Amino acid sequence: MSLSRWAPLAAYWELTKPRLSMMAVITALLGYLAASSGDALTLIAVFAGTALAAGGAAALNQWWERDEDALMHRTADRPLPMRKLSPQATFIFGAVLCLLGPAVLWFGGNALSGVLTAVTVVTYVLLYTPLKKVTPWSTEIGAIPGALPPLIGWVAAEGSIGWVGLFLFAVLYVWQLPHFMAISWLYREDYERSGFRMLSLYDKTGRVVSLRAVIWAVPLLVLTVLAWLTNESGWLFLVGGSLLSFGYLREAVRMLTATERDKPARRLFLASIIFLPCYLILMVADRILFSL
């Protein structure tokens, strides 16, 4: 069979932004594993429902931003700018996945996890996406749906939100801001070309962007200590989580104090990618040991 026959399937797969969607799936699964209860079928529902919802939201985001994507170097090779798929097919594909994701969590997990998944999709597609053209505060708003997957996993297992669920949401929320500040600075020319109102558009020196990254990195240290003070974690997470948080904060400070910010921004971006899985895995391991 010719490889060209598989091209449409590859384009649909690309629409789901696999790496970004996988991050949502992994954080949802870690949120599930951090809970004290649950079963294999619910775990499968968390995996499938989160993957469907994240992939659908990514597809609708690209449908909405297809004209802007064509103007940016880093997104010009996406399926819609390259005309691998039609806008109509993209919209239908994304909408179907966005409907299936919450349904899978509703019936395979519980009603609250299904509702939270639907909220994630709606806020990402209908709130964050259009606001990117309106205000630089869209980053803080967009961090809300980005922080919900681990809470969805927790709720699917526990049936309620609880303090640990809120902790997971808070960690994901504040982690995203330095991460996206680094991206905003590194791709500032692309964002300006497309008309997205990122903070870097108004901050030509990068100082405000860097300061915002530092401000949002600090709460990770606070949250780590707070989890220990409230007896929700043990010494392993306190020490390991604090070291990881301090390292993340250090990279944000380096970006702030640098005279040329591109290299420190790349280091901060890399630190953000390393930090999150290590931090969440450490939390799950600590909770398992803490419960023994």
Predict the CATH topology of the largest domain. Answer: Tetracycline Repressor, domain 2
Order of helices and strands: HHHHHHHHHHHH
Distance between the termini: 54 Å
Overall SS class: mainly alpha
- CATH class division of the largest domain: Mainly Alpha
CATH architecture of the largest domain: Orthogonal Bundle
The level of helicity is: over 70%
Question: How many structural domains in the coordinates?
Answer: 2
Rg result:
19 Å
> What overall geometry do the principal axes of the alpha carbons give?
flat
**Beta strand count:** 0
Task: Give the low-confidence spans.
Answer: none
Please summarize the sheet with the most strands: none
Count up the helices: 12
| Fourth-level CATH superfamily of the largest domain | UbiA prenyltransferase
What percentage of amino acids are in beta strands? under 5%
- What do the pLDDT scores average to? 93
Transmembrane segments: 20-37, 43-64, 85-105, 111-129, 208-229, 235-256, 268-290
Keywords: Cell membrane, Heme biosynthesis, Membrane, Transferase, Transmembrane, Transmembrane helix
Main location: membrane
Pathway: Porphyrin-containing compound metabolism; heme O biosynthesis; heme O from protoheme: step 1/1
Description:
The chain has 292 residues and is mainly α. The chain folds into two domains: 151 residues, Tetracycline Repressor, domain 2; 132 residues. 78% of the residues lie in helices and 0% in strands.
